[in-house]
Amino acid sequence: DDRIPCEKGTKVPRFMKPNGNELWAIIMEKAYAKFCGSYANLAGGFVLWGWQTMTGNNVFQLTEEKSKQGNTWFREDMKAHRDDKNKRACGFSRTNEIYSEDQIWTLLKK
């Protein structure tokens, strides 16, 4: 299908609001909506899921854990969950990787 949903009686896209004439963003949103079953199914979720589906790379997040001994950061890998009703179903699994605040700054500088 080669149609973009628009506001009734206009050529203004109904969902994506590009800053200019960026057709690629509208087409990408439509592809995701088709994959997920509808535009409504795009609401909510994890931004990291979008990065993983766009790049094909594994993604992770670093989460801060505060304590009196000093704050540390731990790595959580995103894991897909098999769910035929929600193709975006995913969660995070904590790994054994732990970083100090100094190590985090070193990682960010790379």
Structure description:
This is Calpain catalytic domain-containing protein. With 110 residues, the chain is an alpha+beta fold. The chain has two domains: 1-43, no CATH class; 58-109. The chain is 29% helix and 24% strand. It is built from three helices and three strands. The protein has helices at 23-36, 47-55, 101-109, and strands spanning 60-65, 72-80, 90-100.
Identify the notable features of this structure and list them briefly.
single chain, 110 residues, alpha+beta, three-stranded antiparallel β-sheet, 3 strands, elongated
What is the percentage of strand-forming residues?
15-25%
Uncertain residue segments: none
Widest sheet: strand order? 1-2-3
Question: How many strands in all?
Answer: 3
Overall radius of gyration: 19 Å
N-to-C order of helices and strands:
HHEEEH
Shape: elongated
Helix proportion of residues, in percent? 25-40%
Distance between termini?
A: 43 Å
List the helices and strands and how they pair.
Layout: H1 23-36, H2 47-55, E1 60-65, E2 72-80, E3 90-100, H3 101-109
Antiparallel strand pairs: 1-2, 2-3
Short description:
The chain contains three helices and three strands. The chain is of the alpha+beta class. Strands 1-2-3 form a three-stranded antiparallel beta sheet.
